[in-house]
Amino acid sequence: MLQKGFLGKLSEWVVSVVSYNVNAHEKAERQFDFHHLVQNAKEPEKILGLFSEWLTFDFRHPVFDGKSALESFVTRNPLHLTEADLSAYRDMLSFEVGLFEVTSVEPGRGIGVRSIATNKKDFVHDISASWSVKLEDTVWTRIAPVAGLYHAVGSLFFVLPVVILSGLREAIQGWKRNIFDAHEIALWVTGGGGREKNEKDEHKPSSLASAEERFVVALKQCGMDGFFSLATYKKWLTNEKKYDLGFAARALFFLTPDTVEDDDGMELITASMHFGNMFPRKKFGGKSPLEVSVATPLDSERKFEMDTYARDSYIKMQEEAQTFMRSGEGEKAYHVYESIIQKLLDERIPFFHAFRLYANAALCCFQEIQEDDMVPKHFPLGEAILDASLRLNPKYDFGIRTRERHVTPYDDVSSLPKRDRNFALVVRGALKEAGLSKYRRTVFRRYEKFLSEVGVSLSYQTNTTPTAWRIGEKGKDGKSIKIGRNEPCYCNSGKKFKKCCGR
Q1: Does the chain have fewer CB atoms within 10 Å around its N or its C terminus?
Q2: In this structure, are strands 110-115 and 138-146 parallel, antiparallel, or unpaired?
Q3: Does 139 have pLDDT greater than 50?
Q4: What is the C-alpha to C-alpha distance for residues 107 and 61, in angstroms, rounded to an integer?
Q5: What pLDDT score does 59 carry?
Q6: What radius of gyration do the chain's Cα atoms show?
Q7: Residue 23 banded pLDDT, cuts 50, 70, 90
């Protein structure tokens, strides 16, 4: 077990340094929103403990050389500890803070926990926790290995009335780290009683407005403010008959572009969860999920399920489709894309990559060419799906290039004799109508309607770099060989790749 006063010695030093520096003290209290959180807390001593922990592990300031207090402590050794004692504090630098699932309880000794973020299991030596938590509880705490044994090195274990379902668990594991620090749990414990500051009233009480502002800033940081609105998100939260409780967070996760930096993406998810938890719901009698969870006793059997989804399964399916496309098996690839869209529809997920999936499914239709046919076997359906791709995102550059390469040539009848042009246009119109008729019976049409109903716009600028592979050819390492810039283009135009599809 930890030596008596081990954590207190560190905490007292941190508090003394911050207290003697007016700038650091004011910034810390303002950043944590300390005074208002204490006023709103049913148990103010818990907020005091969380604030002290946050100062030690999470707060960064020039008074600590721009580092955390713990990092500064083990670097400076201000208390002139022996190397043996200092190494124990150094061990705490490898802490993990956030959500854990209780996997075992040994009364009088400690508890086994599994990290929601890393799926790693550890036994935490903490007598108090062993008497206060139950098997399968979801807890928030901070743990670290000290001298080879894991201990709780922060404030108390907080038992949360939530169950993390498989989708959210998979998503959090994709982030590779926990995201809830001491300030986040302080907001949870107090029901989100933070304050928003403005020029007229430095401490205007408005926790929901503060959460809303954070969400809007996060959307802009991710470059999503041009095609996604707060109003749409509120509509998802408000219309409880049409959208389940977790729809808004799930949809936003899948609409976040894959080009967004990890930190920005995590901030958006965190901001959306804060806003969603503070937004009043009819289901809870006008209260927010956070207010209801705070009012729920910790020993209550009532649990709130929290879930979302991960992209991994969809990415694997896309990779399978691309493998078929590279080997010239367009029809097999098409059926995989069809399965992806059906899965998205079944799980009610508006997907960031939807227009890409449509364009690639259309390209599969253009691949199947019969020897005696003037046009690809499934050209009509391919054209209709491509049109849908460009309805979802008129700015999609790959969709535009695909249309220019595979569809536009059939619209040009100028090279035909004048006597045949009208007939060619009639045939062309029949092909288009046949394609539309087939499209209306596909899952692609049903999914396009779903996106329209949920109010999602996918119209934003995309920049794709064309790459192609020699069909069926693989190098010594087993990987497909890319087409060289000066090789004939794969679309059979007769031009070099760099002057055609590779432009």
Answers
A1: C
A2: unpaired
A3: yes
A4: 40
A5: 92
A6: 29
A7: very high
Contact call for residues 148 and 169 (beta carbons, < 8 A): no
Listed in sequence order, the residues at least 6 apart from 330 whose beta carbon sits closer than 8 Å to its beta carbon are 324, 363, 364, 365, 366, 367, 368
The Cα 151–Cα 110 span in angstroms is 9
At 282, list the tokens: 């009819």
8 A C-beta contact, residue 237 and residue 276: yes
Sole residue written with tokens 């719901």: 281
**Helix ranges restricted to H, 142-191:** 166-175, 182-189
Q: What CA–CA distance (Å, rounded) separates 297 from 42? A: 12
Top pLDDT among 471 and 217 is at 217
Q: Helix or strand or coil: residue 275?
A: helix
Q: Higher pLDDT residue, 13 or 289?
A: 13
Tell me: pLDDT of 413 over 50: yes
Dihedral of alpha carbons 444, 447, 453, 457, sign:
negative
Closest to 160 in 3D by CA, of 128, 203, 189, 135: 189
Q: Which two tokens stand for residue 168?
A: 């959210």
Closest by Cα among 187, 274, 183, 260 to 219? 260
